[in-house]
Amino acid sequence: MSTDSLNNSNEVVATDDDASDLDDLESSVDERTLVVLQFLANFPAETIAWFVEKLTDPIAKGGAELDVRFIKDNKKQRQIYAVGASVKRLLEGAERMGLKKRFQDDTMRDFILCNIHLYQGSNDLDKFLSTREKQQIIMHEIESVRFKMPEGSSEISVKGFLPGLPKLFKDQVIFSACRAKNLLTYFPLHDKRDLRKLIRNWVRSFWSFQPLDDIHDYFGDSITIYFAFLGFYTTFLLPPAILGVFFYLLSFFISYNIIGFFCIFNIIWSSIFLVLWKRESSKLAYKWGSINHSRFDEPRPELWSEEICTNPVTGKFEPFCDYKSKYVKFYTISLPIIIVCLIVSLFVGITYFWVEDSIRNWAFSDLNKVDLHSGDYQSMTLPWDAYVISVMVTIVYGMAIYGLDIGYRYLAVRLNNYENHRLQSSYENFLIAKLVVFNFVNYFCNLFYIAFVLRDYNLLQKNLATLLITWQIIQQAQETVVPYFTYKYKKYRVLGKFSSGSHINLCKKDNDETINKSGGAANDDDDDLKIAENKYQIEKDATKIDYPFGYVFLFSACYPTSALWAFLNNLTEIRTDAFKLVLIHKRPFSRQADGIGSWLLAFELMGIVAVITNCTLVAINDDVLHYFYSVGYSDVGIFVLFVMIEHLLLFVKATISLLVPALPEDIKTNLARIDYEAQLAWTDKTKKLLGDLDPTMKKNQ
């Protein structure tokens, strides 16, 4: 490793006094500061020393065997440590965590250190593991350090073992438990070289396709899958957007009932989209080695309990999770609170309709009082002043439901934490269910009321357009304007305009020799500690895709141009999310994922509801009813006809899902071949083990 390479990215720059130390470091340690560990302010020094000892102790003694260096912050006196590891230690960690690397036959396989020569890129060990993989390994090793009871203790849990420590159980993951209590945090640092490449090829390249491989190399599976889905969804919105504008313009010259054909297209198109996305996500997951990723699910670090139990699979101690208690909390606390939130949302909607009714009565005050619920006003056009007021009220209502969304999201997270889920998958599923149910009522309940109770297409079109555009403007302002000025402000501070003379020193753990890093724009560690102070939450961004999908496909019969607005919104959403992720937030640790998880189920359920809503909207349309009355259909006949059409469309959706497999045939074949080779290897290993035992058994006999 050359000295020049140390001047880039997050590497340490050494003074002449530290030349000998740096030579030793180069021979055994990856100089890159991979992960930063930060403790709570005024955390006891004795306890910090214990944490550092756990990180540096050999694995045989229950440690992580990592390289830890103190980062001296003269400005804020923060307790920050830089964590790295030797190349050999990283390779051992890659095997321990089951990291997948590309094999010679171009398949992704579990890394085995003794067979490293069979993997692509193994001729250069310094570059064999990417920075993201090294950071993922460091995180795995940190979270593999478990609590061992003090000598002489007969208990299986201990509280206050050291100052500032929470109650710890035997074999509990120490750092995750303390992180859940907000006693410490650890996060990976950005790599400025790769970051500049992403800024150039991703954030600033508005009209080009996303560099998914580069994104994956830097951020990992879960984030790349999200952006891949967003790009795939945006591409599939283009045909409905074009056809929607075409049918909308055509409706001015031809009877409006032709929009039924557009509804059928949208329903089938949404089914094709979801099926093809399953195949696309399978291809990406196979390419990146995350398909069918399976490991034993450890309990969530946030899981808390006054009791502990022995895991029947691993035999390890872990906090006891009372499933009855979880469901009792959900049905007695969470569910009533959710119902109250739904009632509040409905009350806001009722208030909006009351104001809308008052505006119409005021507008038609010269006539007999027109009741909003009578339907007599549907053929009337509001005066321009009343129409402007009505639009403004709808905008305020849109802002109100957006505010309810933000508040409820915070409440849903608190309720989910209170329910104390054992597994991360269960936690995410319950959270997504809460968000989907509330937001469906919050965003779409008033539209269903207008469509199926009032049956006012003009009011429905106005509300759809106003709410969709208002929501997009608010969330884009929140996504672009606020992060942009936040970034500029923090960058201004890093450059020394507000805090001149600040600097950070990286110190060796056991002496006073320092590896100095002066402040300024080139100070990469300082950049990360000062700019990237916010944690990126992919779940928050994922919720923003759900609403436009509903606006586009639930009410195609009434507002065909909604696909155009959703398409334009997604174009900017991709770049604004990329901007936040690259320039605003902390770099997240890589997480394995082979799809968008429970959100796919939410989209599929919404697709089924879209069949029902669109068939009903077309069936109750006045032009459609007049046509069927004119050809001799009765109300019962029209009802039966559209129920049959609705069932036929549901059958078509199910048929598409069955005919198009989610897993391509070539991927199935490759996975089967890998499983077969693994079975052969296990058989050979078992035979060899039995062969070694056979002479011993005969001797004992």
Topology:
Layout: H1 19-28, E1 35-39, H2 45-56, E2 67-73, E3 79-84, H3 87-96, E4 100-102, E5 108-110, H4 125-128, H5 131-142, E6 157-158, E7 168-169, H6 174-180, E8 184-188, H7 192-203, H8 212-219, H9 221-250, H10 259-288, E9 308-310, E10 317-319, H11 323-363, H12 384-419, H13 424-454, H14 457-494, E11 504-507, E12 514-517, H15 524-530, H16 538-554, H17 562-584, H18 598-619, H19 622-630, H20 635-659, H21 665-700
Antiparallel strand pairs: 1-3, 1-8, 2-3, 2-11, 4-5, 6-7, 9-10, 11-12
Largest sheet: 6 strands, antiparallel
Number of strands: 12
Mean pLDDT: 77
Helix content: 55-70%
Global shape: globular
Distance N to C terminus: 58 Å
**Residue share in β-strands:** 5-15%
Total number of helical segments?
A: 21
* Global structural class: alpha+beta
Biggest sheet strand line-up: 8-1-3-2-11-12
* Low-pLDDT segments, ≥5 res: 1-30, 369-379, 497-533
User: Radius of gyration, rounded?
Assistant: 30 Å
3D structure, described in words:
By secondary structure, this protein is of the alpha+beta class. It has helices at 19-28, 45-56, 87-96, 125-128, 131-142, 174-180, 192-203, 212-219, 221-250, 259-288, 323-363, 384-419, 424-454, 457-494, 524-530, 538-554, 562-584, 598-619, 622-630, 635-659, 665-700, and strands at residues 35-39, 67-73, 79-84, 100-102, 108-110, 157-158, 168-169, 184-188, 308-310, 317-319, 504-507, 514-517. The relative contact order is 0.11. The longest helix has 41 residues, at 323-363. It has a domain at 32-189. Residues 1-30, 369-379 and 497-533 have low confidence and may be disordered. A six-stranded antiparallel beta sheet has the order 8-1-3-2-11-12. Strands 4-5 form a two-stranded antiparallel ribbon. The protein has a two-stranded antiparallel sheet with strand order 6-7. It is globular, with a radius of gyration of 30 Å. It is built from 21 helices and twelve strands. Helix 9 runs antiparallel to helix 10 (259-288) and helix 10 packs parallel to helix 20.
